[in-house]
Design a protein that fits this description.
By secondary structure, the protein is mostly helical. About 75% of the residues lie in helices and about 0% in strands. The chain is built from 14 helices and no strands.
Length: about 400
């Protein structure tokens, strides 16, 4: 079971590394993105070596028991070093001189971490007392081995310091970014860091209890790995949210907008753009571009049918919508959907009212609305486009039109 779980998470993590690496290769000047790739790769390697069968097979191939633990913890240290460099970059301040100081400090930090880790690995090499594999109880099996304990204590010190710093700084930056996906990712990353500190605390407390003659192997071998695994998942989620979040949101908008887009452009194919950019590609390609395109084409149709919509149509819709206690957002969506359907209906039969509407786009300050809010508004229009209330309003408009003509 542990093999399947850890290997699945490891595969998913390496897929995320590959995705971020492609983005970084396109923008080599983005140092933060490069560091995110390195840190994500460290977490992915941890998952792989945490699988007991892979751990034992690696040691069998190299002929050194528990050497996989060195690679596993080395991957954690790579993550920690990346986190410390991020901290230095984010707190460097503005200006070229500040950035130059940050680069100098980053090199010194990485050098210090490398030196400490070399000492730790040396402690492992000289202090390993036996050749028994310990993929799940390594930290409790060697509490009486000074060299191994030096290895573990330095590992926890490096890892804990990076987690504490990153976990403190991420929420501060998230507070400046409002409700963006990057802010959400930073908050999730911070949660992963704080949960990682729980892992470190469990290990240290486990050491102390063992030295005091009251061993608690469940704390180091069960609670600590569980908290570390959840923390690693949160860290990966935090790194992936800024990229995945907007794409998931775009896919949801696209799924809601597509039926309305198909309906309103069926009679006006001239407003649609060439599909060759994304036709034949996988369905999640260019989601933002496709959503932008559909919204723009729906707006083009709306501008083209204004003269086919009675000037009092929106007022009638609002009056009927208020009677069923709709809130302002729902009322605006219903009014716009009814006006859109009425305009398409009149244009299909060639009817042009004596007094056309100035606009069929409903909502105060529409041009100043953020793009995401406009998407959501049009998605609501799509949701109510075929609602019974719209049918009732259209029936009344048809009757009024017939009466006026007679």
């Amino acid at each position: 079971m542990f093999d399947v779980v850890y290997l699945c998470f490891g595969a998913a993590a390496w897929a995320l590394v590959a995705y971020k690496a492609v983005a970084w290769f396109r923008d080599r000047s983005n140092t933060d993105l490069g560091l995110a790739c390195v840190m994500t790769g460290g977490v992915a390697t941890v998952f792989l070596f945490s699988a007991p069968s892979l751990y034992r097979e690696f040691d069998r191939l190299v002929g050194v028991a528990n050497l996989a633990m060195v690679f596993l913890y080395s991957s954690v240290v790579v993550f920690a070093a990346g986190a410390l460099v991020l901290l230095l970059r984010w707190t460097a301040g503005e200006g070229e001189a500040a950035r130059a100081r940050a680069r100098t400090r980053a090199r010194a930090t990485v050098g210090a971490v490398a030196l400490l880790w070399a000492v730790a690995v040396a402690g492992f090499a000289v202090g390993r007392p036996d050749a028994v594999e310990h993929p799940r109880d390594f930290s409790t099996a060697y509490t009486d081995a000074p060299g191994v304990m030096l290895f573990l204590v330095l590992y926890l010190a490096i890892f804990g310091a990076s987690l504490a710093g990153l976990g403190t700084l991420c929420p501060r930056y998230a507070a400046r970014l409002g409700g963006s996906w990057l802010a959400r990712g930073l908050r999730v990353l911070a949660a992963g860091c704080w949960l990682g500190l729980v892992y470190c605390a469990c290990k240290v407390i486990g050491f102390a209890l063992s030295w005091a003659g009251h061993p608690a192997p469940w704390l180091s071998n069960d609670v600590a790995p569980l908290s570390a695994s959840v923390a690693a998942i949160l860290v990966l989620a935090g790194f992936s949210l800024p990229a995945a979040g907007p794409r998931v949101a775009a896919w949801r908008r696209l799924r809601r907008l597509t039926p309305l887009w198909r309906t309103v452009t069926a009679q006006t194919p001239e407003v649609t753009m060439d599909d060759s950019r994304w036709s034949g590609r996988w369905p999640f390609a260019d989601l933002e571009w496709r959503a932008n395109r559909q919204m723009a084409e729906i707006r083009d149709v709306q501008r083209g049918i204004r003269r086919h919509v009675e000037s009092d149509a929106i007022d009638i819709v609002r009056e009927r919508a208020r009677a069923v206690s709709l809130d302002d957002r729902q009322l605006a969506a219903v009014a716009e959907a009814a006006a859109l359907r009425r305009g398409l209906e009149n244009r299909a039969v060639g009817h042009v009212p004596a007094h056309g509407a100035d606009s069929v786009v409903v909502g105060e300050g529409h041009e100043a609305i953020r793009l995401t809010a406009e998407y959501e508004h049009l998605a609501l229009v799509a949701d109510v486009y075929h609602s019974p209330l719209i049918e009732t309003v259209l029936t009344e408009l048809r009757q009024r039109s017939a009466t006026a003509r007679s």
